[in-house]
Specification:
The protein has 8 helices and no strands. It is mostly helical and 139 residues long. It has a domain of 80 residues. It is globular. Bound molecules: protoporphyrin IX containing FE.
Length: 139
């Protein structure tokens, strides 16, 4: 990914991370988007979830060079554990970008593209590790 995207993403992420409402907006959008997602988060401690998500977003940024940072999250989300089916990552990303749009006053098409490009390697990694039975074939 080119440095321009990296800088655009970093600046936007900083603006979002400063706003305490950012992840509230994301989880409201995500949980309201369909019943499958709502059901999965029914018993979740959302304060803890938001803290872990903020840390994990920084791992997502590093996924191209250091994907192993996501191993624990990948294991938790795989078919044997939370069973987060791959199509839900598309919804996750769209809701994340909608939350960025609501939060970042400098949101633009470029900001949108920079977030998508930055998060793609991490999402691809989690999706590739969805099915542990297949991991020998996929790695
Ligand atoms: C790139 C995308 C994602 C990232 C970075 C991510 C990150 C995380 C993290 C850090 C946790 C906490 C893990 C722990 O408790 O140790 C978590 C839990 C969880 N995630 Fe994700 N997640 C992603 C996508 C999704 C998607 C698409 C779903 C679909 C609904 C989902 C549903 C859940 C659920 C249900 C939990 C457990 C909540 C609980 O413990 O009650 N995640 N996720």
């Amino acid at each position: 990914m080119d440095d321009d995207y990296r800088n655009i993403f970093n600046d936007s992420f900083e603006r979002c991370a400063k706003d305490p409402q950012f992840l509230d907006r994301f989880y409201t959008l995500f949980i309201d988007c369909n019943d499958e997602v709502r059901e999965l988060f029914r018993h979740t401690d959302m304060a803890r979830q938001k803290e872990l998500m903020m840390i994990t977003l920084s791992y997502m940024m590093l996924a191209q060079s250091t994907p192993e940072l996501l191993d624990r999250v990948a294991e938790r989300h795989n078919r044997r554990n939370l069973d987060i089916r791959p199509h839900l990552y598309v919804t996750w990303l769209d809701c994340m970008l909608a939350a960025v749009h609501q939060t970042d006053p400098k949101f633009s098409r470029e900001v949108d593209a920079a977030w998508r490009a930055t998060l793609k390697p991490g999402i691809d990694y989690l999706v590739r590790h969805y099915d542990p039975e297949d991991s020998v074939l996929q790695d």
